[in-house]
Design goal:
Length: 214
């Protein structure tokens, strides 16, 4: 029975999560499998891989053929190296102790590289967060300044409006005063008391002396 080491998809839409399985090559991709030998989560940075290296090496020894992605995962975790070293032990080229020492040395070096990558990502992430925070502060400062300027402009506009209203009121009062001062003053005619006419009795003319003709 041909066996393949491949990925079986799990997880949810948009966030896949894979099992690393040894399965019959004729079975469906997400169908039955012979053994689950690890997991692969590509949603983290770096990707999280949990692999049973000894089980993977045993399946490789039994003739299982990994897919391209599975091979990359096995190589990344050292399963391919373990399989190669086990072959050297079986052939008698090296002892088991030598194989284990070589594998452990490679594993330590790999761990240091992975940790350095994680540290670099952490520093980059921290730097990105600091830059984002600084940019956000600058945006907030600009918004605050714009709001303050708008408030000052509104206050200045209110002052100008109040002054304009006061000037208009003053002009109206002055205009009213000027109009009142230029209107002709109407003086009611007072009837002068009628001059008293003193009737002086006419002096009786002396009677004409009748000439008596004597």
């Amino acid at each position: 029975m041909p066996v393949k080491i491949r990925l079986q998809r799990h997880g949810k839409k948009g966030k896949p999560f894979f099992w690393v399985v040894a399965a019959d090559s004729r079975a469906k991709r997400d169908g039955k499998f012979l053994e689950k030998i690890g997991t692969y989560n590509p949603n983290t940075n770096p990707a999280t891989i949990d692999l049973n290296i000894d089980a993977a090496a045993q399946w490789l020894f039994n003739g299982a053929q990994p897919t391209d992605t599975a091979r990359a995962i096995l190589s990344y975790k050292g399963a391919m190296l373990k399989h190669h070293l086990n072959g050297g032990v079986r052939k008698g080229a090296i002892t088991q102790e030598q194989a284990d020492a070589k594998f452990n040395a490679w594993l330590d070096e790999k761990t240091i590289k992975v940790q350095a990558k994680r540290d670099g990502l952490s520093l980059a992430d921290a730097d990105a967060k600091a830059k984002a925070f600084k940019a956000e502060q600058e945006v907030n400062a600009k918004r605050a300044k714009a709001a303050a300027d708008a408030l000052k402009a509104a206050e200045a506009a209110n002052v100008v409006e109040e002054v304009t209203e006061e000037v208009a009121e003053t002009e109206a009062v002055v205009e009213t005063a000027v109009v009142e001062s230029t209107e002709p003053t109407t003086v009611e005619a007072t009837e002068a008391p009628a001059a008293e006419v003193t009737e002086t009795p006419a002096e009786e003319a002396p009677a004409a002396e009748e000439k008596t003709e004597e």
